[in-house]
Design goal:
The protein has 94 residues and is an alpha+beta fold. It contains 2 helices and 3 strands.
Length: 94
C-alpha cells in the first residue's frame, strides 16, 4: 500500500465519522425541539383550563417559547361543560 492511498483512506474515515456525527446531532435537535413544542402546548392548555369564566377564557391567547419556536393558541369556552380549553384549530408554531 502506498502512503497516498493510506492517507486518502484515513481522510475518508474521518469524513464518514464527521458525517455520521452531523446526522446524529440533527436528529437529536429535532427530537428535543418537538418535545419542547409539545410541552409548550400542554402548558398553554393548562393556562386555558385555569380560567373560570367565559369572559376570561375567550380573552386569553397564551403564547409560550419552545426552544427556537414560539407556540400560541386561543382559548375557547365550552358551554356544555362550562370549562375553558384550547381551541386546537388555533395552535400556531413559528
Amino acid at each position: 500500500m502506498e502512503k497516498g492511498q493510506g492517507a486518502l483512506e484515513y481522510l475518508l474515515l474521518i469524513g464518514a465519522a464527521v458525517g455520521i456525527a452531523a446526522v446524529v446531532m440533527v436528529v437529536l435537535f429535532t427530537t428535543i425541539n418537538s418535545q419542547q413544542v409539545e410541552t409548550a402546548k400542554k402548558e398553554i392548555r393548562l393556562m386555558c383550563a385555569q380560567q373560570t369564566s367565559q369572559t376570561e377564557c375567550t380573552s386569553l391567547s397564551p403564547t409560550k417559547k419552545a426552544g427556537n419556536a414560539t407556540v400560541s393558541a386561543s382559548c375557547a369556552w365550552d358551554n356544555t361543560t362550562n370549562t375553558c380549553d384550547v381551541d386546537s384549530t388555533t395552535y400556531t408554531v413559528s
